[in-house]
């Protein structure tokens, strides 16, 4: 029958649908693997365990960078109910728009916890904790933030902040939301300080509720604590130096000559590193970055527009002695300056003629113009250019004109010009010793960073060698390479330092006419040299480099105070106070200290220094 | 009488009963697996869904036994009373029921929730079978067809009012029975065509769908012309009738509504078509003409229907199904998770109780509408295929049984049973593997829930009783 035949058609429909289903099942179950992967991602969650970051100590094992607890306010958007935004924002004290922006991001994945407000202070978090039951879907998670008990050393120690895309691209260790050292020790020693993230696989349900560990935690990885660092810094000296430099622009670098260990590295103006933690980092960073006094600019390492001024005379004296151009008894007469070929280099009034020791003591310009020209024009070199090359190689051996290689980022090389520079500027063979005579007194093109200057003081203190300055002595439980154990020997014989040191002794402890008698400390012999660098932008820079005690040098120091006048006015007293502080741990000249502390060379108090005082 | 009561268990079709038992028991274990977690208690724990399902299963067996013991004539005799009772129940539910998941389909009596709509399928099946088995009633006769439609539309309307559209859609499965009982095959064809046209009209703009309809109309006319051995020029003229208005509007860039070209074409064709129909008494061309016209009208009105007749959640379900709106955490989320669960099952599955997706609530409604995910995930391709095979075996067996009935009532009822079961199976499984829109109807015998298990059991066992007594039931 016709209608009975329709049973076959109906049956066929059933079978076709069934085959269609079986085919589809075969495809999604057996052929297509993407569903299996999704299933894994779906049901297990990797919870990262952030280890505590390594602590940082000073040379005397004082804790200088600590970890404090802070809290992230987490939200699982899908669990939020009847949110009382006004009450929540009232507790958190944050911007409404920012909060809503973050909540929108949280809404992108309804079932994953999202840090909606990061690094809430302990106080706010405890207030929040009491009210948290009013905010379903929200919970807090402990994180650590850096704290700086001594409130100093911001640029040396550095700070940490959330990774940027560049950080993630550069190192796949990082994930969104991780923290990374941005400047200073935090950045250079990031690999040691960060430790190793660990993690646990958890089985979760669709709402992100944890159901338990995956396979009894068989795949979990414990986190490894960050390594602690012992720095070479003397935090008390660092703190004191920053205090002395308050309201001044410039830098102090102090080095232990025997080891190259940096005792203090100060760039002023600076700020309280505690301002660069937690939630405040964003606003404060913007403030500092736009501050005309550039508190984020580490002058100690990056200040390579600093001419060394008269401190450089020591270098020229060393080269001349080493090359046999002069002997300590070499004398030059000076009538208030040096006159040659229409060029006049002025000098102050002092007895004349002067020998080498006296030339250092009185800082005679004419003496060094003569010495420098004598080197360049010496017959044995043939040409001025060759003589300049020789001179330059000696200067190089002191670590000038190239970065020293300190374990801090962004160190600048300073500048000891290549002969090609003068070739280009004046024309080949068109420049003579007189053309570049300003190099003799540390002016002209040459520049050095305060770090290089302090290193020069260390070389003199050591009579001819140095260790690369460094700020970290030891990473706990970690073998370090020998970079900072390697002795760099300069081109100068130890014995030629004797008259130099004698001269530097006289600068401080000499009779009247010595340039830096203000720096003298009863009972401690200091060797020093002032510098007063002319600069086209304003008042001269006040410079002083020194080391002490002369018999057994424990500290070499360079002080650079911008637009402060004579080297003896600020550079020498500050260096002297630093030496006194470091060697005796007391200040017996409160009048000098007060004068330094009260001087304000930055007429408008900067935002950074203002912030610092408030703290 | 006594003899007959004993022998019912001999005369009953045990093959169907075995498949039924297999499906119900597999379903029960899968509900346990779907709800299962580490601290899960015994499968018989009454406070959990699997424990409750056990109660439903036991009571369903009791119900089946009672059904088999009742005189088979009663089902015919009391079908209208039962129908009236269920309609009354639906109205009561609509008036009293609280809203659950947006639908007012459940009547709560204590902790017991009754879904009256499930029983409406059974009652309507009996009523329709009763009416259609009456002497002289033919589905091809218009007034009979209207009566059947009324019997179906009353419960459907109330169920739609209850916002349980899924259950109401099940009645469309009755088409299969109508087909078997002599409804012209082309009506089924038109129904399929309408569903396709609706889908395309939702997905594509009217202008594109209309071009497709026009091209299809021309092709169908060419076939018709071949069949009627008409000269080729007629076909060319028809093609020109469609092409010319369209080309003119395009060429002169006339600012006319989208339907203008097709309306013009149909108007141009109206007089020649009517003349031909009148002269040759060609009903085929008559139907073709109005199907073409209807197609344009239908496609154009879909947008209106879509935005004004359908409810918001139905609209978004269709949007998501047609891939027009991505909503990974909403509706698409459900289907995605369902596909992920099934897809992760691989060939042999993860093993009983080892499913990670279904166990941790990734799949929504995992013990009810999405129970098939548990099978797919834990038993893999093999398990899912076995379940599909069991269902198909059941369907074919019931078809076979229906065809051997001597009474029209039994045969029609048997076809309705298999149609309803098949519709549930097709939509539910299709939904979990992402080839059907999300329509919340249970998988027969598997999904958790007393109402559905009871109603499917009654549906099947009333038929088995009728089949057992097929020699007694002749009318």
Describe it for me?
The complex is a heterodimer of chains A (615) and B (475). Chain A has two domains: 46-127 and 141-231, Penicillin-binding protein 2a (Domain 2), CATH 3.90.1310; 235-476 and 486-614, Beta-lactamase (3-Layer(aba) Sandwich), CATH 3.40.710. In chain A, 36% of the residues lie in helices and 20% in strands. Chain A contains 22 helices and 20 strands. In chain A, the strands form six sheets. In chain A, strands 2, 3, 4, 5, 10 and 16 form a six-stranded mixed β-sheet that branches. Chain A is elongated. Chain A starts with a helix and ends with a helix. The model of chain A is unreliable at 605-615 (pLDDT under 50). Chain B is mostly helical and 475 residues long. Chain B folds into two domains: 2-182 and 397-468, no CATH class; 190-309, no CATH class. Chain B is built from 19 helices and two strands. Chain B has helices at 2-11, 14-35, 49-69, 72-77, 79-96, 116-132, 142-161, 165-169, 174-180, 185-203, 206-227, 232-251, 260-280, 283-308, 312-321, 331-343, 371-403, 408-432, 450-468, and strands at 106-109, 112-115. A two-stranded antiparallel sheet of chain B has the order 1-2. In chain B, α2 packs antiparallel against α3. Chain B is globular and about 75 Å long. Chains A and B meet through α1 and α2 of A and α9, α16, α17 and α18 of B.
Radius of gyration of chain A: 33 Å
- Give the overall pLDDT of chain A as a whole number: 86
Report the count of strand segments of chain B: 2
**Low-confidence region ranges of chain A:** 605-615
Mean pLDDT of chain B: 84
Overall, the morphology of chain B is globular
Please, how many helices of chain A? 22
Q: What's the assembly state of these chains? A: heterodimer
Output the structural class of chain A: alpha+beta
Question: Helical percent range of chain A?
Answer: 25-40%
Low-pLDDT segments, ≥5 res of chain B: none
Tell me the count of domains of chain A.
2
Radius of gyration of chain B: 26 Å
| CATH architecture classification name of the largest domain in chain A | 3-Layer(aba) Sandwich
**CATH H-level superfamily title of the largest domain in chain A:** DD-peptidase/beta-lactamase superfamily
């Amino acid at each position: 029958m016709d209608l009975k035949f329709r049973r076959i058609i109906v049956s066929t429909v059933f079978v076709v649908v069934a085959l269609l289903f079986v085919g589809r099942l075969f495809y999604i179950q057996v052929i297509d693997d993407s569903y299996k992967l999704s299933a894994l991602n779906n049901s297990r969650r990797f919870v990262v365990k952030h280890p505590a970051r390594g602590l940082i100590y000073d040379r005397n094992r004082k804790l200088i960078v600590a970890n404090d607890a802070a809290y992230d306010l987490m939200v699982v958007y899908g669990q939020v109910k009847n949110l009382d935004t006004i009450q929540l924002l009232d507790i958190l004290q944050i911007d409404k728009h920012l909060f809503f922006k973050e909540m929108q991001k949280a809404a992108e994945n309804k079932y994953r916890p999202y840090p909606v407000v990061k690094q809430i202070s302990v106080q706010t978090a405890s207030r929040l904790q009491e009210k948290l039951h009013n905010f379903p879907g929200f919970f807090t998670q402990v994180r650590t933030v850096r704290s700086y008990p001594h409130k100093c050393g911001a640029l040396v120690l550095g700070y940490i902040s959330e990774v940027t895309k560049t950080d993630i691209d550069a190192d796949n260790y990082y994930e969104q939301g991780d923290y990374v050292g941005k400047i200073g020790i935090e950045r250079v020693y990031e690999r040691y300080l960060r430790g190793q993230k660990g993690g646990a696989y958890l089985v979760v349900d669709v709402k992100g509720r944890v159901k338990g560990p995956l396979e009894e935690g068989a795949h979990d990885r414990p986190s490894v604590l960050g390594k602690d660092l012992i720095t070479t810094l003397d935090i008390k000296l660092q703190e004191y130096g920053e205090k002395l430099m308050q309201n001044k622009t410039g830098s102090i670098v102090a080095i232990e000559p025997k080891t190259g260990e940096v005792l203090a590295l100060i760039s002023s103006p600076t700020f309280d590193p505690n301002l660069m933690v937690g939630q405040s980092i964003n606003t404060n960073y913007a403030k500092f970055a736009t501050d005309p006094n550039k508190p984020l600019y580490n002058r100690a390492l990056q200040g390579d527009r600093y001419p060394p001024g008269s401190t450089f005379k020591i270098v020229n004296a060393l080269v001349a002695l080493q090359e046999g151009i002069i002997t300590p008894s070499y004398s030059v007469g000076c009538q208030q300056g040096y006159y040659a070929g229409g060029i006049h280099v002025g000098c102050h009034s002092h007895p004349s003629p002067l020998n080498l020791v006296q030339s250092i003591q009185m800082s005679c310009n004419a003496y060094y113009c003569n010495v420098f020209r004598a080197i360049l024009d010496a017959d044995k070199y043939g040409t001025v250019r060759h003589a300049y090359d020789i001179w330059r190689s000696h200067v190089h051996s002191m670590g000038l004109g190239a970065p020293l290689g300190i374990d801090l980022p962004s160190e600048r090389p300073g500048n000891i010009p290549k002969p090609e520079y003068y070739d280009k500027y004046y024309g080949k063979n068109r420049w003579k010793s007189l053309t570049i005579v300003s190099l003799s007194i540390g002016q002209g093109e040459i520049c050095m960073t305060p770090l290089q200057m302090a290193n020069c003081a260390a070389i003199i203190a050591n009579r001819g060698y140095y260790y690369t300055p460094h700020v970290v002595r030891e990473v706990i439980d970690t073998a370090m390479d020998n970079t900072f154990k390697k002795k760099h020997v300069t081109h100068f014989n130890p014995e030629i330092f004797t008259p130099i040191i004698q001269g530097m002794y006289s600068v401080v402890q000499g009779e009247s006419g010595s340039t830096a008698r203000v720096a003298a400390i009863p009972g401690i012999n200091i060797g020093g040299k002032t510098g007063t660098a002319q600069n086209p932008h304003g008042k001269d820079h006040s410079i002083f480099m020194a080391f002490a005690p002369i018999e057994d040098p424990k500290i070499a120091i360079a002080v650079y105070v911008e637009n402060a006048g004579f080297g003896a006015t600020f550079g020498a007293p500050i260096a002297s106070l630093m030496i006194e502080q470091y060697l005796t741990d007391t200040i017996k000249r409160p009048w000098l200290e007060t004068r330094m502390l009260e001087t304000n060379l930055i007429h408008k108090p900067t935002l950074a220094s203002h912030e610092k005082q408030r703290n | 009488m006594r003899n007959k009561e004993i022998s019912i268990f001999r005369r009953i079709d045990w093959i169907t009963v075995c498949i039924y038992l297999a499906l119900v028991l597999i379903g029960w274990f899968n509900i346990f697996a779907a709800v299962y977690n580490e601290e899960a208690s015994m499968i018989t724990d009454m406070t959990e869904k699997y424990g409750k399902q056990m109660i439903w299963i036991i009571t369903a067996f009791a119900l089946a036994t009672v059904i088999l013991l009742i005189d088979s004539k009663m089902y015919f005799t009391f079908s209208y009373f039962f129908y009236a009772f269920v309609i009354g129940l639906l109205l009561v539910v609509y008036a009293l029921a609280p809203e659950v998941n947006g639908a007012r389909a459940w009547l709560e009596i204590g902790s017991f929730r009754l879904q009256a709509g499930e029983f409406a399928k059974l009652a309507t099946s009996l009523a329709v079978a009763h009416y259609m088995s009456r002497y002289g009633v033919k589905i091809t006769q218009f007034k009979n067809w209207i009566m059947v439609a009324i019997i179906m539309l009353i419960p459907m309307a109330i169920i739609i009012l209850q916002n349980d559209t899924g259950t109401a859609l099940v009645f469309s499965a009755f088409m299969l029975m109508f087909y078997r009982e002599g409804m012209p095959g082309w009506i089924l064809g038109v129904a399929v065509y309408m569903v396709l046209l609706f889908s395309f009209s939702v997905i594509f703009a009217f202008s594109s769908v209309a071009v497709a309809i026009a091209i299809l109309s021309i092709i169908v006319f060419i076939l018709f012309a071949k069949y009627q051995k008409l000269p080729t020029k007629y076909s060319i003229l028809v093609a020109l009738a469609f092409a010319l208005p369209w080309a003119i509007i395009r060429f002169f860039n006339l600012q006319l509504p989208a339907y203008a070209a097709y309306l013009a074409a149909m108007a141009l064709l109206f007089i020649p078509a009517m003349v031909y129909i009148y002269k040759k008494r060609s009903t085929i061309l008559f139907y073709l003409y109005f199907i073409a016209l209807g197609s344009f009208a239908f496609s154009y009105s879909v947008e209106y229907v879509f935005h004004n007749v359908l409810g918001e959640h139905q609209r978004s379900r269709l949007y998501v199904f047609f891939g027009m709106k991505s909503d990974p955490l909403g509706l698409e989320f459900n289907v995605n998770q369902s596909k992920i669960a099934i897809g992760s099952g691989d060939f042999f599955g993860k093993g009983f109780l080892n499913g990670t997706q279904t166990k941790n609530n990734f799949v929504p409604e995992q013990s009810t509408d999405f129970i098939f995910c548990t099978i797919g995930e834990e038993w893999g391709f093999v398990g899912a295929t076995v379940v599909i095979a069991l269902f198909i075996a059941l369907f074919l067996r019931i078809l076979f049984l229906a065809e051997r009935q001597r009474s029209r009532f039994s045969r029609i009822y048997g076809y309705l049973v298999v149609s309803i079961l098949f519709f549930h199976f097709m939509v539910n499984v299709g939904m979990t593997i992402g080839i059907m829109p999300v329509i919340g109807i249970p998988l027969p015998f598997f999904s958790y829930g007393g109402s559905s298990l009871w109603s499917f059991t009654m549906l099947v066992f009333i038929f088995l009783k009728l089949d057992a007594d097929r020699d007694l039931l002749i009318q």
